[in-house]
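Work Package 3 committed the consortium to producing structural models of liganded targets before the mid-term review. Because experimental data for this complex are still outstanding, the team generated a predictive model from sequence and the ligand definition alone, so that downstream docking and mutagenesis planning could proceed in parallel. The input record is reproduced below exactly as it was submitted to the modelling pipeline, together with the SMILES string for zinc ion.
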Amino acid sequence: MSFITRGFSGRSHERDERLPPGQTLVHDFPVLSAGPTPEIDTAEWEFSITTETGGVHSWNWQQFMALPIDEVDTDIHCVTHWSKLGTSWRGISLDTLFENVETQYDYVMAHSYGGYTTNLALDDLLDGKAWIAFEFDGEPLDPEHGGPARLLVPHLYFWKSAKWVRGLVMMGEDEPGFWEQNGYHLHGDPWKEERYW
Amino acid sequence: MQHVDGNAIAGPLAEFFAFDITTAVARCNGCGFVAELARAMVYTSPAGSVLRCASCEQVLATLVESDDRAWFGFSGVSAIEVRRR
Ligand SMILES: [Zn+2]
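The resulting structure, written out as tokens with the ligand in place, is given here.
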């Protein structure tokens, strides 16, 4: 990918190539949520992957933090037209978490503490495209930002990056999650502007 | 069974969609609490607004708005009671 850094004297209305269509740059990070913020102690926290056989792979915080950690520098795009460039995260790759998971299913429902759900294709979670993130900008993720850990799928609109994630359940068919049942697109690719039904 | 298409309830639906939200009453599917929608708790997230039951916090309804469309979801209510004028 080629990217040319423009000087501060450059014309500011020139469009940044990292911005998908219909997006505007922001420097802050809106934290409004669809419900009360769950306060999850890492001592109680658990993350699991459940397959079609009923097999459950689960990690407590200690086991989770013993996995190899990725540093992730990425742009994020919210469906409400803001993008934030060059955000930095630390997290565990979904490739690592799926290493010993055997499944024939192609879709995943992500479930969060607090009841939120969002659907994803397994292809969108693997090959270095998604993480369970526990650190943002060098600090542990605070509860407002989805801590102790959230899903991070930066190549899709940010509602797919479920805050307070607690598990993934494999699905044979693509079924809509919370926002997807209520107006939003099943997939959510910002470069194709897959915002709504 | 014979059925007709949705146009047949256009009249009553027009009455429904003209209701005054502050007087409409809904029953929560989760805990059975019956209350005016105006008493529900509203959370505003970037993706849309969420109405939650004042008793159990379950989602009652959602509102999503784009530039040219709006979506009303009532996933957590079984029925809505509106006052007739
Ligand atoms: Zn309730």
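Reviewers should note the following from the model. The first helix of chain A runs from residue 61 to 65. These observations will guide the Year 2 experiments.
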